[in-house]
Design a protein that fits this description.
By secondary structure, the protein is mainly α. 41% of the residues lie in helices and 5% in strands. The protein has four helices and two strands. The structure holds iron/sulfur cluster.
């Protein structure tokens, strides 16, 4: 069993769950609602160094950051991105 780090994204420690929860949710959205991949990556790199990230979830809002970061209208509740 791999160790789960608190500053990890869901995709980092449970790829199957990521696909089930996040990949599926995002694939159900219209493409115009999704941010470009480079923007998502920039946002998630900020989350990875944020003390509010806990196992893929943002402790400030309770969301999966990989979903929030993927949305065109997604915003960090602390305005970090
Ligand atoms: S969304 Fe904002 S507050 Fe939440 S983990 Fe990412 S950078 Fe931190």
């Amino acid at each position: 069993m791999s160790k789960i780090c608190t500053r990890c994204l869901l995709a980092d420690f449970d790829r199957a769950k990521y696909e089930q929860l996040i990949g599926k949710s995002l694939s159900d959205l219209p493409p115009e609602d999704l941010a470009p991949f480079d923007i998502r990556d920039e946002r998630l790199s900020v989350c990875r160094s944020c003390e509010k990230l806990n196992r893929g979830t943002c402790l400030a809002c309770g969301c999966f950051v990989e979903i929030r970061a993927a949305l065109v209208r997604g915003r960090c509740p602390y305005k970090n991105w």
